[in-house]
Every structure is written in C-alpha cells, then in structure tokens.
Amino acid sequence: MKDNETKTRFMELRAQGLPLKKIAAEIKVSKTTLINWDRDFKGEIDNLRAVELEAMYDKYDLSTRKKVEFFGDILSRIQRELETRDLSSISTEKLFVMYAHFYREAKHTLPEIAFRDEDEIKAVKAQRDELNHLLSESNKRICE
What we know:
The protein is an all-alpha fold. It has 7 helices and no strands. It folds into 3 domains: 1-60, Arc Repressor Mutant, subunit A (Orthogonal Bundle), CATH 1.10.10; 63-111; 114-144. Helix 5 packs antiparallel against helix 6. The longest helix is centred in the last third of the chain and has 26 residues, at 118-143. It starts with a helix and ends with a helix.
C-alpha cells in the first residue's frame, strides 16, 4: 500500500494534466496502480483541477467579474461615440457592428441571475451536504 503523500502527489500531478506515464516515473508507482487511483480519486482530482484552473483565471484576469467590467467599459465607450456620430456614415456602421459584437460577448459572459425559493435552497443545501459526506468518505479511503 502506498502512503498518503504519494497518493496526494499523484492527485496533484494528475490535476495539473500530466499523463500517467510521466507521473509513474516521477513518483515511482506502476501505471496499473495509477489507473486505479485515477478512477478511485476522480472527484478529488477534478476538484484540484478546478482549483488550478481558477488560479490561472485569477492570474490572467479571466474572472467573470473582470470580463463583465471589460465588456461593459467597451460598450459604454462605443455607445458614447455612437451618440456623437451621424448615422449615415460608414464608420458608424462599423461602430454598430462593434457594438453588436461586444454586446453579444458581454451577454454571453454574464452569469445567469436566478433567485431560489426556500424549497430550492433546502434542496441545494441537501445536495451540498451529500457531496461533503461523499468527499469525507473518499478522504477516509485515501488515509487507509
């Protein structure tokens, strides 16, 4: 049985996208064992991968908030410029195309705003509690 440090290192490397062959060489565990661990710890690996991705988004200012601010600023600037233009000019046409493009991008970027009633909130909490329970059980398996 491999120690918890080795399993944790495997999950970290797998979450970073390394292939099993490279991981096997680095942590000195057979590829067959890694295939089993990949299946057994899929949820943990997916969570680590999401954390890695979130960190990259933050590093490169790709968060939803930053994108909304960016597109909102561009739309405002184009709209202000459009208000000063004669609508019969060709460049105005181009501005409308730009406005439409950025409007679609901004709309696509915006998260859906949804309000939930009390029953829906309880259902979401129950799902979250069940997920936490499953993660807890999974962590216990890691420690075995």
